[in-house]
Amino acid sequence: MTAATFHSLRALRPICFRPCLLLAALALSAAMPAWADHPGQAKLVQEVAKDTGKDPAQLNALLDGAKMQQSILNAISRPAEAKPWSDYRQIFLTPQRIDAGIDFYRAHRALLEKIGAEYGVAPQYIVAILGVETFYGRNTGKYKVLDALVTLGLYYPPRAAFFRDQLKTLLELPDSQLAGPVDTLTGSYAGAQGWGQFMPGSIRDFAVDEDGDGRIDLQNSLPDILASVANYFAKHGWVSGGMVAARAQPDGAAKQLDVKDSTPQWTIEQLEAWGYAPIQHLDPGASSSVQKFQGLNGPEYWFTFQNFYVITRYNRSPMYAMAVSQLADAIAAGANSPEQATQ
């Protein structure tokens, strides 16, 4: 995961774990009898029933069957984004992941290029998202989505508001937007589902029924999976044919920049004037930002553009966006090379 992430965590970056709050949550859950409702369950059911007309008894039965999972609370305390870039990169830019992405691209080239043209997103970035999130559908998560969202929405104070909203959305989604019954769905420890690891809110807002069968299935329908990722990018402002990132070389007097997120906010011309030289030719008027990563051989500086920012809408970590970008480049190079084409 995604995250990843999330955005599914894929659009979320976990915050630092707070042991005192977790201990309080665990103490509360341990003190409750096994038959008791989850904390806040009655109000949640009331809200969902009011908004959708669903039967409160059926909603309570669903939630009564969900379990608070200690392993989920443990997992969210160890986000991969806490690692330096030199370690984070090695998770996703492996020969195995690159080769599998090349094979996937070649095997599904016609569908990928059709969807890429439809949504204006280069196919290698769609593939790279699947590669980073679930190793091209091989590892979509083993947690029950309902358990994950109940645990984090009702027992994890640091992110309770976000995850409770995702739990409410899950309970409100129509059957046509889910790969199966709510209590059978599996995914990440954060409740993200499918090959692209979509959170319930992202399923509601961005997932599409590309194969036209009247159902959105992010677990079993490759057209739905690929098009949903592409649509997510398109709806967040992807620039067709636009750059993602380019290496920058600061001089000894380069201005120290206060970069709070990945929003492009300066022109390349301005950044050059401040001491950041591009390694390749770039449009001087292009809007950009600068990201600094701790690489194996010291700091790395990168100009990042609108499409980099869009990837961070999937997972807010700049390292995540850089991993997707570099994996996409490697996949495109391999899939389009003469050597690969003859294999």
From TrEMBL:
Could you tell me the keywords of this UniProt record? Signal
Top-level division of the source organism's lineage: Bacteria
Any signal peptide, and if so, which residues? 1-36
Ranges where the Transglycosylase SLT domain occurs: 43-329
Q: Which Pfam families match?
A: SLT_2
Tell me the NCBIfam families matching this sequence: MltB
Which protein is depicted?
Lytic murein transglycosylase B
Source organism (scientific name): Dyella acidiphila
